[in-house]
Amino acid sequence: MKLVKTRVEFEGRFRDEYVPVEEEEVEAWASDERLNVVGKPVSRVDAKSKVTGSAKYTHDVYPPGVLYGKFVRSPYSHAKVKSVNIQNALETPGVVAIYTKHNAHTLPFEAAKKFFGEEVNYQGEEVAFVVAEEEEALSDAIEKIDVEYEPLPAFLNIEEPTNQVTRKVYERGSVEKGFKEADVVIEERFDTQATLHNCMETHGCVVWWEGDTLIVHTSTQAIFYVRKELSEELGIPEKNIRVICSFMGGGFGSKFGAGRYTLFAAMVSRALSRAVRVVLDRVEENLVTGNRSQTVQKIRIGAKKDGTLTAIEHFALVNIGVDGWTADVGGPTKSLYRCENVRVEIVGVKTNLVSNTAFRAPGYVEGNFALECALDELAQKLGIDPLELRLRNYAEKDQLLNLPYSSKGLKQAYEKGARLIRWFDEPRVVRIGDKIRAKGMASVIWFGGGGPPAYSQVKLNSDGSVNVITATQDIGTGTKTALAQIAAEELSIPIEKVQVTLGDTITELYSPGSGGSQTLASVGPAVRSAARDVKTQLLELASQLFDAPLGSLTLENGVIKKKTGEKLATLEEIAKRLGNFVIIGKGARGPNKDEYALNTFAAQFAEIEVDTQTGKIKLVKFVSVHDSGRVVNPLVFSSQIEGGVIQGLGYALTEGRLVDNSGAVLNPNLADYLIPCSEDIGEIIAEWVEVQDPYVNNIGSKGIGEPPIIGVAPAIANALKAATGVRARALPLTPERVYFSINSLLETSKTNATYI
Amino acid sequence: MSFVRVSFQVNGSRVSVFVEPRTTLLDVLRKKLGLTGAKKGCDMGNCGACTVLVNGKSRLSCLTFAVQVDGMEITTVEGLSRGDSLDALQESFIRNDALQCGFCTPGQIMSAKFLLSVNPHPTLEEIKRYMAGNLCRCGAYPKIFRAIEEASRGVLSEAR
């Protein structure tokens, strides 16, 4: 075994990993390799359980004798908690226990002391926890808990020069020099709003103890991250914690941690020796599980008359809430276009709002809006077609790492997208009465090459069926199906013979969190290696059984043959002869090739219709063309694109957390916070370019989860500019805002609420 | 706390339960009967994940008290299939990949089931309008439309 250092990226943050490499890395499939299962539009292997209602999500776990738990939460965004009186509440029928700052320390873990402080710093912060025999009793009891607060002023305005807790500066070349060389300079300001994930399955867990082992069912994107966090917080070894997530109702970045609800449930379960279930309601989900950050951005771009970029300067204030993180809003600015002189400064500001969390391409969605809108302005100022301007500044290599891309099909994506939206083939602006139709576009860069560590085992049973085991998650992206396809391909068997088991730490086959568009590119190669191991073992056995030299044997269509074509035995026949001596193949994700930058790309085009009488924007058509390397399953892949575009549509047009000047959220539910519904959807054309990438990993695939959301808002805003001549500077583009701006009216809101 | 007896049919079988008057049909289905297909996405009638059929009509089971359905016939997503034999809509949802995480899917299918029962061949615009109460955060909408259209064509050919 040898140790290899490799570069691994997650959500734009790079780290070095040391990877023990046991086996020879399986070679990537050649471009002309004839594949039978990979690349085919196979139905999801778990679709039947989802359409029949038999799929068990965390919400569906009700162990016998389970207790229900719920936090009492602060209605204030900033207040002193003077006293918590639970006397009346304790007498509520069905109530088993109530924990507050006065008695939480009686729980048998140090971590209990971290709960229920003297002050609350965002609306929804916990002040007590009620446990009851019946769910209905929880609300009865919560009504009777008397909390005395002393409200304090809330810090909400990120433009005030305090509370700036992080500052990241990136510089290459000299922007001063670059702006001097420029023939034109544009300067723009953009404001983006906080948006809420609103996974259909709210955050939640069901936990119980079996002896010293903690069993945790939880709706998560990362069972191993949950286990590690619980182990650290509770002070118990990881081996004594089993985290299970078989089916999962959406995460979008918000479900990587254990959450305070799981930690508290585990402690209460231990104290009361009962199973405990904590499932957040929809309002809690909107108040306490995080959000995409609000930003205020200023961007300056300098260019020559021919469009050549000479300098980009990008400054952003990011609202990270009470204790969040600062995502790389400057990511696209640093990498999307060729430019020698770039300066990016990103400042994180703390406020009395919940901590932000990752949300599908965190940072890049916000930053790309500013960059791509500004580039559109530049194109107009220079009189250059927006697509042509992008082509003139095409980045042939990665300018941060100074490395070639393992593959980059953005040029082909531009061409295909332009054709599909008829960019050059028809007028881009058409007026029909009070309505104007227009087109706009944007480019996308993201990560998605994946990396180690990720492990898998593939087991060949005596009946010829195959189990693929790995402890990744399928959060609705189709991971289970893609992994089954990869194993079936490698073993040349029908996909029906493959069963994938995932979402349970008991398998101990570590896999990374399902996020960062990294799942398939990390776990897929491990599964392929494990399947290859099975194949190698099979051929070795066949060589001995049939007394044939190993090099003369192949496995094709489930049959072991001599290279001369002579059939020796089917995979089933050999498996049967082995009886219960099953073949187990092991696979691990190999190191990344550090001589390449691993990125995904997309070209996105929007056609919208603006109603000038109402300000309403309707999506007519959206074309999204992606380079994500090899597409393992075109059916599921296109679903991912459509879903990302639709989430981007919400970001562009309807979604935004409305906060009043006391820091209270005014729309923490699905009636007032508007995620896209069926009536909002126009025609979406999900497409891709076939790019061969033999370097990225042994399946040649890059991720697709995040890229489709990134360029949607700027493509729509650029179409709005084309339609009306008005540059949208703040999201979301509500009818009210659009109406005011196209009529040159100042936005005069009657409420004190803002989208932050 | 008083309890009342409520009896009704679920997927063709008679059930009889003691419930508080304030207990919703959704909670009875999920907690007392173990029929967890209908989901609690919001418990406020905003998301549609809890949609079931009551006497053949689509209802949000989170806004329906169990006592309101006494003597009635309930169909949940579990009642649409018999073993390997699936409803045309279920088949169509699978074939068209009209789901991602799958959490809203039972509600989508039950709403679509009712739509096709009153309008066997809806236009795309009619599908979009009728399905607007069933939210899908993964954004499976385009394929849900296609699945319903395809199933509606199947419904037509079966009728012939």
UniProtKB/TrEMBL annotation, chain B:
Keyword hit for Iron: yes
Q: Say yes or no: keyword Oxidoreductase present.
A: yes
Q: Which UniProt keywords apply?
A: 2Fe-2S, Iron, Iron-sulfur, Metal-binding, Oxidoreductase
Record InterPro entries: 2Fe-2S-bd, 2Fe-2S-bd_dom_sf, 2Fe-2S_ferredoxin-like_sf, 2Fe-2S_ferredoxin-type, 2Fe2S_fd_BS, Beta-grasp_dom_sf, Diverse_Oxidoreductases
- Please name one Pfam family that this protein belongs to: Fer2
List each copy of the 2Fe-2S ferredoxin-type domain by range: 4-80
Q: Which GO terms describe its molecular function?
A: 2 iron, 2 sulfur cluster binding; metal ion binding; oxidoreductase activity
| Name of the protein described by the UniProt record | (2Fe-2S)-binding protein
PROSITE patterns to which the protein is assigned, alphabetical: 2FE2S_FER_1, 2FE2S_FER_2
Q: Which domain of life is it from?
A: Archaea
UniProt organism field: Candidatus Marsarchaeota G1 archaeon OSP_D
